[in-house]
Amino acid sequence: MAHRVLYYTLDGDTRRADEILDGWGMRDRIELVGCAHEPLAAPTADQLAGCSGLIGEFAPVIKDTVDEAVAAGVRVVASMSIGLNHLDLARLADHGVVVANCPGYCAEDVAAHTVALMLDLMRKITFSNRDVLAGGWDPKVGYEAYRTQGRTLGLVFFGSIAQAVAPIARVLGMRVLVWAPTKTAEELAAHGCERAGTLDELLGASDVVSLHCPLIPETRGLIGARELALMKPTAYLVNTARGEIVDEDALIEALDAGAIRAAGLDVIAHETHPDPRIIHHPRVIVTPHAAYDSVEAADNLRLMSLEAVCDVLVRGIEPAHAVDRAACAAQGLSPR
Predict the structure, then answer these.
(1) Which of 123, 252, 314, 317 has the greatest number of C-beta atoms within 10 Å?
(2) 242 catalytic, yes or no?
(3) Is residue 130 among the annotated active site residues?
(4) Residue 289 annotated among the catalytic residues of the structure
(5) Which one from 86, 191, 289, 325 is the annotated catalytic residue?
C-alpha cells in the first residue's frame, strides 16, 4: 500500500515529482497528494489527514500544526528549503518526526543573484532606469560609479553560497574579505580569500558587504546602527540571507544620513507585510526573496525532498540531510 505524502507547494503540481518517483521505481510506494497554498500558510488538519509524510514549500510547521501532523500520522517533514526557522524542530523531534532540509540546492542561484545585486548597485542600473522612467536622461544620476577592480567585497560567513560568490568576485578583480568565526585563515586562503578577525574589521574595510549567515539568535539584528556606522559612506549592503539579520530602522536611518550609499535586499524582515519605507526607498533595490529561483534549483528541491521521504517511509533509513536536533539546538535553530 502506497504511503500518502502531502505535496504542499505553491502550485500543488505533482507532475514532475511523479516523474522522478517513476524513474526511481517508487511511484507505487509513494502517493503524492498535491495541494497549492499561499506562501507561509500552514497546512490544515484536513489536508494532513491520512498522510505519512509532508513535503512543504514555504510551509510553517509550528505550534498546533505540529500536533495536527502527528495526529495525522506524519513521520517525516521534508522542507523544500535550507532555512529551518519555520519549523518547530524540538517539538517535531519529541514526537519522533524526522525533519530533512535541502542544503546547497540553490547555492549557484543565490550567488548569481548576490553578484547581480552588487553590480546593479555599483553600476546604478535600477536607479538609472527609475530616472529614465520618470522622464530623466542623466547618465550620471545619483552617486559616482566605480569599477569593481580593486574594490573589496566583504562576505559575512562562508557557507556554500558565499563560497560560490567568491570566485566570481575575484574574476571581477575584487579583493574578497571574509568574517567567518569557524573558518581559519588557511581555509579561506584556499578559496583565494582573506580572513577578517572581527566583523568590525570587515565592515570598515569593505566596499560591498554581503550577508550569508543563517538566522540564529546570535545573528538576529547583527547589522544595526553601530555596525552600519562602521561602514564606508560609499559602501553598499547586500542581503540574500535572512531579513531579520538587518535592523531595518537602522538601515533606513543610515541611508537617509548618507552613512552608507545604497542597499540591495532579496530578503526583508516582514515579507508578508513589507515596510513601505524599505520598498520605496530611493537608495534600495528589493527583490521578492527570489534569489533561489531557477528551473534547476526547483528540480534539486524535488529530488532532495522526495529522496528524504523515500528514505524514511520506504527504505527505513535516515535521510542524508536529516536535521540533527542536538546540533540545531546548539546553533539556536529552534523556532522563534
Answers:
(1) 252
(2) yes
(3) no
(4) yes
(5) 289
All domains in the chain, ordered by first residue: 3-105+294-330 (3.40.50.720), 107-286 (3.40.50.720)
Residue-level pLDDT at 328: 56
Sheet with strand 98-100: strands edge to edge: 30-36, 3-9, 53-56, 76-79, 98-100
pLDDT tens sequence across 284-313: 999 999 999 999 999 999 999 999 999 999
Pick the catalytic residue from 271, 280, 315, 318: 271
Q: Model confidence over 70-102: pLDDT tens digits?
A: 999 999 999 999 888 899 999 999 999 999 999
- Active-site residue identified among 242, 281, 302, 321: 242
| Whether pTM exceeds 0.85 | yes
